[in-house]
Write a structure and sequence with these properties.
10 strands; globular; 384 residues; two-stranded antiparallel sheet; alpha/beta
């Protein structure tokens, strides 16, 4: 299928796309849109505005009601007391073997990071580890026992409203993103780890946590048009799954439905999905020409508008339960392959990089933003 669009037909397609403004929205509960906040004490010391107290105020101003804390520093958890902002905490990969070996170690972590502050700090979910299959596959045998010990530890303490899960990366667990109907979990992790883990999530009414970056899939597949990755809408910007007859108009939904299809193959199609990380970099290394502020703003606005539209995904009417944008502000130091990437929606001094409306579910606004985005892509294309 060709996604090319010549200048002569662009404007007629644009005005045709305006007809979508009158489409009725599907009604369902809206997903929670949150943000990742990484507490960096040396950095916070240099820039007082990035400290937890100021961050809580900023999140209220942005009208964000959920935060993911990868470091889960107890002092930061405390600073969210009485904020009415829900928290997704993370237990470091390095602690998984110790927590798996003895429930008392799980209780020790809970007594340090949760009990002194809960329920004043609104902890909703604990992720035991983050993307252990990336470089820590030796932890696979310890993961599920560690999750059980944290879950049982919470029950021992009389806490029933905090769910326990773990976080995977889409790239590291899925066989494909298209077509979604053909997607499965990669072996040997599928049989040895993910299937029993799905049973645990089902039994405990917990969610599947996934780091999901359309930017990474887009970079790996030259056939994907930039507009498809950025939630831009026009009549020819789609992909069809011929097996299911489903039409996809953005890469995010396609990736989410690939995960849902893989869970269905494993016998657990109804587990809620939480996207723990997603975003688009505003800068990258010399080869990342699509890592730009314009595209980053388009992706985040498109994501927020899509999640606020009640459209869900083709295979799941309610869509994802929560989605956390990565990340709140640019950090000045990076490691490894991402040394040049900047993901924040704010600069290190906490001034805004983009104009993003995180609240509201005006579907007309959604389509207006998408139509406007077509002009931006077209203008950038002309400049190439």
């Amino acid at each position: 299928m060709s996604f090319s669009l010549n200048p002569a037909s662009f404007f007629s397609l644009f005005f045709f796309s305006l007809s979508f403004l009158s489409l009725p929205a599907r009604t369902s509960s809206l997903p929670v849109v949150g943000i990742t906040y990484t507490h960096d004490p040396p950095h916070d010391h240099d820039h007082d505005r990035t400290g937890p107290n100021y961050v809580v105020s900023t999140l209220h101003t942005l009208r964000l009601s959920a935060v993911r804390l990868p470091e889960s520093d107890p002092s930061v958890v405390r600073d969210f007391s009485y904020s009415n902002i829900s928290l997704l905490l993370n237990i470091p990969n390095s602690l998984i073997p110790a927590i798996a070996s003895n429930r008392s170690n799980a209780l020790r972590w809970l007594y340090h990071h949760v009990i002194p502050f809960y329920p004043r700090s609104k902890v909703s979910t604990i992720s035991v580890g983050n993307d252990i299959l990336d470089n820590s596959f030796d932890l696979a045998d310890f993961l599920l026992p560690a999750m059980r010990n944290v879950h049982l530890g919470l029950r021992d303490l009389g806490i029933h409203k905090i769910s326990v899960s773990t976080t995977f990366s889409f790239i590291n667990i899925m066989t494909t993103s298209f077509p979604p109907s053909a997607a499965e979990f990669q072996e040997p992790a599928a049989e040895l780890l993910i299937k029993p883990l799905l049973q645990f999530l089902d039994d405990t009414n917990s969610s599947f946590l996934i780091n999901l970056y359309p930017y990474n899939v887009y970079r790996l597949n030259s056939e994907i048009p930039i507009g498809f990755a950025l939630f831009q809408q026009h009549p020819f910007n789609y992909r069809d799954d011929v097996t299911t007859g489903v039409r996809y108009r953005n890469l995010f939904d396609m990736m989410v439905d690939s995960l849902i299809s893989a869970m269905a193959v494993a016998g657990h199609e109804n587990i809620p999905v939480i996207v723990t990380e997603t975003g688009w970099p505003s800068s990258g290394d010399a080869s990342e020409i699509d890592a730009s502020p314009a595209y980053a703003e388009m992706y985040i606005n498109g994501l927020v508008s899509h999640l606020s539209s009640s459209l869900g995904t083709p295979l799941r009417r309610e869509g994802v339960a929560e989605a956390y944008i990565y990340e709140l502000f640019d950090r000045e130091t990076r490691q490894g392959n991402e040394s040049g990437r900047r993901w924040g929606i704010m600069y290190p001094n906490m001034t805004k990089k983009y104009n993003i409306a995180f609240s509201g579910s005006d579907t007309t606004g959604y389509w207006v933003k998408m139509a406007g985005g077509l002009f931006t892509i077209f203008a950038l294309w002309l400049l190439q």
